[in-house]
């Protein structure tokens, strides 16, 4: 952290660093990104749309264990490297339903991971990613609570990967190549569940809003803290605060704490307080969370359109962490006011099945 520009400017009164406006931080002011801001991309139909709804080819070889009711499953007895295209489509469908799917003891190499992931779409590149096809994810030993004093991006908080893009990623995959025996877990939250956890009045309010997703804060932090040069200029994008998932057709909350700075339709203080509420909402959602303990050879594949995630900060005293991440472009987020939430669909299906059973005089219900 000592290499942050702020540490060159110490207050004579407090003895602590004085933060600089980015225009006067030479690392930020002098950087000229080599690439242009991206334009809207029309992506192919999601591979999950082609899958057998029962996922028979995949579940014939893999044993599925759900980790929490709302989110997260493990697939056992299967090597990703052996899945055929039909099984990969079914895996994508499972990921859109469960949010994140985990594997242990995988034999994937980086080359094979890249090849496999191209099945799901066009490979995306993180703004700090130099390799064309994958990005290396390491564990940060920095005190994220203190870093936040001197560089603006809340890097340790819940986010959907690069949600500021016009076409944010649909799927991401992270495969761990090095990992200590303890520390560096990742937590995911279900955005289907977080939407359902709102009151009806709040749902109506948020349904009509656009969240401001920005890469500006990350841009400054990449330059000053990471010492790397972002490929692209910073971008602000207004995405629906509630989005409709293109495969499940379910509503999912589209607010995250890593990249969302406010709501386009609201006045500043209204926006600030709503975002503050969402900070509480996300951080108190134990019933819509799953936490994964990594090992070397573990893999997670998640859907950024219906989940957010964060690495649980660790000290990494027992060793380093190195993962290989691949992502693919998703569609431009949209909101269909006629789409339903996961809970609404469950209730509707439950009511329909009861009507059907009662209609057949197979059972009768006695009101309690
Ligand atoms: Fe991430």
What would you say this structure looks like, in words?
The chain starts with 25 loop residues before the first helix and ends in a 9-residue tail after the last helix. The strands form 4 sheets. It has a 7-stranded mixed beta sheet with strand order 1-2-3-13-5-15-4. The protein has one domain (23-359): 4-Layer Sandwich (Double-stranded beta-helix), CATH 3.60.130.10. Helix 3 (85-98) links the parallel strand 2 and strand 3 (100-103). It is built from 10 helices and 15 strands. The protein is α+β, with helices and mostly antiparallel strands. It is globular and about 80 Å long. The site of fe (ii) ion has 3 residues, from loops. It comes from Zasmidium cellare ATCC 36951. Residues 339-348 have a biased composition (Basic and acidic residues). Residues 335-368 are annotated as: Disordered.
């Amino acid at each position: 952290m000592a290499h942050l520009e702020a540490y060159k400017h110490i207050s004579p009164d407090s003895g602590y660093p004085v933060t600089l406006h980015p225009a006067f931080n030479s690392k930020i002011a002098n950087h000229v990104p080599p690439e242009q801001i991206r334009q809207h991309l029309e992506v192919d139909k999601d591979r999950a749309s082609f899958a057998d709804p029962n996922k028979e080819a995949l579940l014939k070889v893999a044993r599925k264990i759900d980790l929490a009711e709302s989110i997260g499953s493990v697939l056992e007895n299967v090597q990703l490297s052996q899945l055929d295209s039909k099984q990969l489509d079914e895996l994508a469908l499972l990921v859109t339903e469960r949010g994140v799917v985990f594997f242990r003891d995988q034999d994937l190499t980086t080359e094979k991971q890249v090849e496999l992931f191209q099945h799901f779409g066009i490979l995306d590149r993180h703004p700090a990613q130099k390799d064309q096809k994958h990005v290396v994810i390491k564990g940060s030993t920095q005190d994220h609570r203190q870093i936040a004093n001197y560089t603006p991006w809340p890097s340790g908080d819940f986010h959907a990967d690069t949600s500021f893009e016009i076409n944010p990623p649909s799927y991401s995959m992270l495969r761990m190549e090095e990992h200590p025996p303890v520390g560096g877990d990742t937590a995911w939250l279900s955005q289907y569940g977080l939407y359902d956890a709102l009151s009806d009045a709040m749902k109506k309010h948020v349904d009509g809003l656009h969240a401001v997703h920005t890469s500006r804060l990350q841009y400054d932090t990449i330059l000053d803290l990471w010492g790397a040069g972002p490929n692209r200029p910073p971008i602000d994008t207004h995405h629906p605060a509630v989005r409709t998932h293109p495969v499940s057709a379910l509503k999912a909350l589209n607010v995250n704490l890593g990249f969302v700075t406010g709501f386009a339709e609201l006045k500043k203080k209204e926006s600030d307080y709503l975002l503050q509420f969402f900070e509480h909402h996300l951080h108190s959602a134990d019933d819509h969370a799953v936490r994964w303990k990594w090992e070397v050879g573990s893999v997670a594949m998640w859907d950024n359109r219906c989940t957010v995630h964060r690495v649980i900060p660790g000290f990494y005293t027992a060793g380093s962490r190195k993962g290989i991440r691949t992502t693919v472009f998703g569609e431009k987020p949209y909101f269909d006011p006629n789409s339903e939430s996961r809970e609404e669909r469950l209730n509707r299906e439950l009511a329909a099945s009861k009507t059907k059973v009662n209609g057949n005089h197979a059972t009768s219900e006695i009101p309690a």
